[in-house]
Specification:
Layout lengths: L6 H21 L2 H5 L8 H20 L3 H7 L9 H13 L18 H21 L2 H6 L1 E4 L3 E4 H23 L2
Antiparallel strand pairs: 1-2
Helix pairs in contact: 1-6, 1-8, 3-6, 3-8, 5-8
Length: about 180
């Protein structure tokens, strides 16, 4: 994904990637859902982590833009490319970075899987809808903090979110052998 995504494309891709992850998790048997080697997150933990990552964006994107502008600054440089954001994140992971604080999953039992998937998709749909309402200049001019890669424009945070859910789906596919 090299080209710059406009707000409609960004919103659509964000939702598409979350639906793909949700459909994959929904297809897992109880055994595959709960399986993880030592030190790895099973599907329930990855589902929980993604929800914990997306849910705060609903609140952040609902704020009047002057609030993140005041708290995290504005930028006139615009947004980096999707590939640049993905590379920055992957470099941090290769350097040993891990989820911290509120982003560390507690896990979701198999019995609550469908409810958790619905909650993740609800949050992704809300973020997607909020992105669709933003002017392009807001997406490129206002920033939010990311715990690993620093301040990102609203558009870059969307790029990160797309890459993040894809990263976890790929990880889970490897883990489950599917």
């Amino acid at each position: 994904m090299e080209k710059r995504l406009n707000r409609e494309q960004l919103a659509a891709e964000l939702l598409h990637q979350h639906r793909s992850f949700a459909n994959f998790v929904a297809s897992l048997s109880k055994e595959r859902y709960e399986h993880a080697p030592a030190g790895k997150w099973n599907a329930g933990a990855q589902l929980d982590h993604l929800y914990r990552s997306v849910r705060p964006l609903v609140m952040a994107y609902r704020l009047p833009v002057w609030v993140p502008g005041l708290l995290f600054g504005r930028t006139t440089k615009g947004s980096s490319a999707f590939a640049d954001i993905a590379q920055r994140y992957e470099a941090k992971l290769k350097g040993g970075a891990k989820a911290t604080g509120a982003y560390v999953p507690k896990g979701i039992p198999y019995a609550l899987r469908d409810q958790a998937i619905a909650s993740l998709l609800d949050s992704a749909e809300k973020v997607s809808g909020l992105i669709r309402q933003m002017p392009e200049s807001t997406l490129d001019g206002y920033r939010l903090p990311h715990p690993l890669i620093g301040k990102l424009t609203f558009r870059e945070m969307g790029y990160f979110t797309i890459h993040h859910v894809g990263h976890h789906e790929a990880s889970l596919r490897l883990l489950t052998g599917l």
